[in-house]
Amino acid sequence: MPFSRSINIVGCHAEGEVGDVIIGGVLDVPGKTMFDKLVHFETKKDSLRQLLLNEPRGRSSMNTNLVLPPCDPRADAGFLIMESEEYAPMSGSNIICTTTVLLETGMIPMTEPVTKVTLDTAAGLVTVTAECEGGKCKNVEFDNVPAFALELDYKVQVPGMGQVSVDIAYGGMMYVLVDAASLGLVVDNQHARQLVEIAEKIKRAVEAAYTPVHPENPGIRGFSVLEYTVPLRMEAGTKVAMNAVVVSPGRFDRSPCGTGTSARLAVMHSRGQIKEGEVFKHRSILGTEFVSRIRGITKVGKYSAVLPSVKGRAWITSFKQVVLDITDPFPEGFRVGDQWHLAPN
Ligand SMILES: O=C(O)[C@H]1NCC[C@@H]1O
């Protein structure tokens, strides 16, 4: 059969957010670090991401991870994260999916009751601890890269909205955080469309005014995600909040978002709202949960940073082979404005 691509994928979701995992059909690329490999895909092989994430094979609310040999010899595997608009340096739901797939398909041997795995990501090495039973990952906790607030109460003029106050933080991806109540917004599933429209508007305004740059890797710069924050509340002595992360090009993260949780921990710590070791539960738009804590404090460049650990669960949903027929008129797929938030021309 005349196919120009044939790719083996394990379908997976973490607390609702799709993070499929490519386990075959894509060869390794050159690079001394996983970030180099990310840049290689971004600049030379982006058609793979387009093919898998755009319609008709993909949809606006999904991600695909690519397992590759690690660059750092301390790691068990490397992986790259492909999202609709970018290659994310790190991602919580995606590392939980990738670990679950690696262990539940035997690509990395599972030991019960606990398996420790080190994964090489474009943001650095991440240690993952999976609680396993009967061949299944019951949950996966990752020790994220340092998270830090770059700006608190940064003021930006948003067309049609006036001045908006935001925080800017890194949690493995760069975030704009905005207090939903300060804009008179209610964060829930019913208001999702309105929230996404406003989030994209604010994100574009912040992007135009401020370029965040990671002090240790200037290649990590710019925003792709906005997080609405709602006030913390106490449940049985634990801090809990709803998470509402809008991922470009304009849709809600279905999970409680691991990098968003990390960014929020960094902001909360900078504001004196959480201490090292304290548990913070983040709930998604679907009501699913990530349980997080600050496992230590560090510095990144001039910024004080926290070391977040985040725990969640993932489930395999399919084993599929995706192909590209040589006569397919859409070798990189397509997007239609009813499902994809298309930026104004
Ligand atoms: O959990 C996370 O960090 C992510 N979920 C999808 C978008 C972010 O990468």
TrEMBL record:
One of its GO terms (molecular function) is 4-hydroxyproline epimerase activity. SUPFAM superfamilies: Diaminopimelate epimerase-like (SSF54506). Pfam families: Pro_racemase (PF05544). The active site is at residues 91, 257. InterPro entries: Pro_racemase_fam. Belongs to the proline racemase family. This is Proline racemase. It comes from Penicillium canariense.
